[in-house]
Amino acid sequence: MSLGLRERASRVLLDNWHGQSTIPASGLYPHQWSWDSAFIALGLRHLSPRRAQRELESLFGAQWPDGRVPHIVFDASTPADAYFPGPAFWQSATVTAPGHPATSGLIQPPVHALAAWETFRAAPELARERGFLPRLYPRLVAWHRYLTGRRDFGGRGLVSIVHPWESGMDNSPAWDSPLSRVAPTTSLFTRRDLQHAAAGERPTDLDYGRYVRLAQTYRDHGYADDLATHAFAVEDPLTNALLAASEAALADIAVELGLDPASHLAELARVRDALADTLFDGGDGCFHARDVHSGQSLRCGSVAGLIPLVVPGLPVADALVKTTVGPRFRLGEIGLPPSFDLTDAMFEATRYWRGPAWFNIGWLLWRGLRLHGEHELAATVRAGLLSAADDVGFREYVDPLTRNGHGASDFSWTAAVILDLLAAA
Question: Among all residues, which ones are annotated catalytic?
Answer without folding.
Answer: 170, 396
